[in-house]
Amino acid sequence: MNKQKGLRPTIKTYKFMQMKSLRILTVLFTLLLLTFSNDAFAQKRKRKKYDPAKAQATIVAFKKTDPSLASFFSKAYGYAVFPSIGKGGIGIGGAAGKGLIYKGGSLQGGSKMTQVTVGFQFGGQEYSEVIFFEDADAYGRFINNKYQFAAQASAVALKSGVSADAKYTDGVAVFTMAKGGLMYEASVGGQKFKFVPKSDF
Question: For the whole model, what pTM was predicted?
């Protein structure tokens, strides 16, 4: 009897350890599954960071909104197309987006854009942006990460016929087209760019 009583705690302990081990295995399996899912999602996002199809659709949309913009696309030394830039803030805001760079109509690489702004602004906005380079010097500065918009730089809000009077400033001309949302501050001042080779897409 004493031996049987002495065995009972041991059996209970063994069962407890079994349950604890099962719980640990379940947690580890769940973490492994989540890690795999996150990696797969990250890889999927990485593949879609620089999407030529979206860039071409953006070009079509810009030309449709303002047909006269076609001359900029045909005459510019090169241009960068950012299909979607997300911007938001209350007082202090920021923006980020990824685009594609073209020269002579041929894809040359990608660009990461970041921006921090301070001033009167409220809400959020998503918009597309196209930057035209007037000559080889402006294009070279951009792809060599030596270009940053001055604090007071502004873009031309695209609408029909507006590009007819647009001019290059410091070798670039910038056009934006809102996709929705609310943002009182329309400046592109402070935007910074980092070139991304096609091999890193």
Answer: 0.70
> Which DSSP string do the residues of the chain spell out, in sequence order?
-HHHHHHHHHHHHHHHHHHHHHHHHHHHHHHHHHHHHHHHHHHHHHHHSS-HHHHHHHHHHHHHH-GGGHHHHHHSSEEEEEEEEEEEEEEEEEEEEEEEEEETTEEEEEEEEEEEEEEEEEEEEEEEEEEEE-SHHHHHHHHTT--B--TT-B-EEP-TTGGGG---BTTEEEEEEEEEE--S--B-TT-EEEEEEGGG-
Q: Are residues 177 and 114 in the same domain?
A: yes
Confidence of residue 45 (pLDDT cuts 50, 70, 90): very low
Are residues 106 and 154 located together in one domain of the fold?
Answer: yes
- How many domains is the chain partitioned into structurally? 2
The verdict on 69 and 7 lying in the same domain is no
